[in-house]
Amino acid sequence: MIKNFPKNEAVQLRNMLMYSPSQSLTKTFVDSPDFSMIMHSLWHDGEMILSADDRDIFITCMEGALIVSLQNKELYIVRQGESLLIETDQEYRIIAKQNCKFLIINTRD
What we know:
By secondary structure, the protein is an all-beta fold. The protein is 0% helix and 56% strand. It has no helices and nine strands. It has strands spanning 24-31, 35-42, 47-51, 55-63, 65-70, 74-79, 83-86, 91-96, 100-108.
């Protein structure tokens, strides 16, 4: 079930979460054992480290730009309007290159 989202109303997703200086904010829309969809906002130079476990991770940047590194090796810059698919079982780190908002969708096979 989708939560924290208005029903029967068109909205700009990026406006549903604000920024907070030096903090990471999240809004969870779906969180189940097999699927999750969570929106994040990161202040400039903020970072988060997450594990993909046995899930594919799909990141879409809705505002700003972020850097994604996989197991501290491969680096990707994901800008507004761009998406990145990360394969399962990889630890990944997200760093806000500037204030940014992004959506993470993950699925388990």
